[in-house]
Write a structure and sequence with these properties.
0% strand, Hypothetical protein af1432, single chain
C-alpha cells in the first residue's frame, strides 16, 4: 500500500485530468480533512490505525469528479443500482467511491473503503475510523459557512455529539426524516464513550 503523500499526488493528478474548475478547492478540502482526521484521532485518543485513517481521509473524495455514466455503470456492475441510483447524485461519489478506488488504485482495504463509502451519508454500522472521516469531512477548516460552527465547537469536547450534529444538519438540509436517519441520529445523540 502506498503512503499518504503518494496518494495526495495521485489525487491531484486525477483531479487535474477531470478539467473541473473546482479542483483546487476540492483538493484543499481533502488535505484539510486529512489534517482534521489526525486532530480528532489525537484529541480523543481514538483506537484506529492512523495510516489507514490518513489514506481514507485523503481519498474520501477521490471519485468526486467522475461522470454520471461511470457511476451508473459501477452501480450496475457491483449490484448497487437499487440502493444507490435512487439517491441524490451528490452522494454517488461517496457511495460508489470505493469501487472507483478499487478499480483505479487497486486498493481493497475494507476499512478504508467503508470510511470512504459512508463519509457523506453515514451508516448505523460505521466503525470508529468511518466515524472520524464522517465528522472530519464536516468540520475541516475549509468549511466556513455558519452552520458548521456548532459542530466544530462541539467536536473539541464531544466526538459523538458532533457526529449527531452533522446528521441533524443533513436531515434538515434534505428534509429527510426517515426512520433510518432518525435511528442514526439517535445512536450518536445517545451514545456514551465505550473505548
Amino acid at each position: 500500500m502506498k503512503k499518504t503523500d503518494e496518494y495526495k499526488a495521485i489525487l491531484w493528478h486525477k483531479y487535474l485530468q477531470s478539467g473541473n474548475k473546482e479542483i483546487l478547492q476540492r483538493y484543499l478540502h481533502s488535505v484539510a480533512v486529512l489534517n482534521k482526521t489526525e486532530e480528532l484521532i489525537e484529541r480523543f485518543n481514538l483506537p484506529v490505525d492512523r495510516e489507514k485513517a490518513r489514506l481514507a481521509a485523503i481519498l474520501h473524495d477521490f471519485a468526486k469528479f467522475e461522470n454520471e455514466e461511470r457511476f451508473i455503470a459501477l452501480a450496475h456492475k457491483y449490484d448497487e443500482s437499487s440502493a444507490v441510483i435512487k439517491l441524490s447524485p451528490k452522494t454517488w461519489h461517496a457511495l460508489l467511491g470505493p469501487y472507483v478506488i478499487m478499480e483505479d488504485l487497486g486498493l481493497k482495504d475494507k476499512q478504508i473503503l467503508n470510511a470512504v463509502r459512508w463519509h457523506t451519508t453515514g451508516n448505523i454500522d460505521m466503525d470508529i475510523m468511518a466515524e472520524v472521516i464522517f465528522l472530519a469531512d464536516f468540520i475541516d477548516e475549509s468549511r466556513i459557512e455558519d452552520y458548521f460552527d456548532e459542530a466544530k465547537t462541539v467536536a473539541k469536547t464531544d466526538f459523538h455529539k458532533a457526529i449527531s450534529l452533522k446528521i441533524k444538519q443533513k436531515m434538515e438540509e434534505l428534509n429527510d426524516y426517515s426512520q433510518e436517519l432518525i435511528d442514526l441520529y439517535n445512536k450518536y445523540a445517545e451514545v456514551k464513550w465505550n473505548f
